[in-house]
Amino acid sequence: MDQIPLSATVDGVSAVCIRDKAFLLVERGREPSKGWLAFPGGRREDGETPEEAAIRELHEETGITATAVTYLTTVTFDYSTPEFPAPKPFRLAVFLVQDSTGEAVAADDAAAVHWLKLEEMSAFDVTESVLDVVSELAGRFNSP
Length: 144
Hints:
GO molecular function: hydrolase activity
Cofactor: Mg(2+)
Number of domains: 1
CATH architecture: Alpha-Beta Complex
Number of strands: 8
Shape: globular
Keywords: Hydrolase
Largest sheet: 4 strands, mixed
Domain Nudix hydrolase: 8-138
CATH topology: Nucleoside Triphosphate Pyrophosphohydrolase
Radius of gyration: 14 Å
Helix content: 10-25%
Organism: Phyllobacterium endophyticum
């Protein structure tokens, strides 16, 4: 059975950038979810692969450049998601950034950028889906 290509099954993307066990999060400057912290990301443009969109969105929102990303998971938001209510299901592909360079600055629709470790995130409004991904990846830091 053929697998459906990722590009056919996602509406948007986010990019997980990690440095020194801290995760790059942006404060959303616009609705939906204005004020919440999330991974840099957004909608795909026409003709763009999800991987290309993740690299572009990371750069547009933070100034960070990446050469490659690796697919992690897909999160679906709908009307019942409190931090990102969507009138119809919105599928967001989450990618881990490889080989990032540059200093993070808030740009595009990001109001601010933060490098946070998992234990620091409780002081902020961070989306549940971000906390799930961060918890999974932070667990790898402590694995032998």
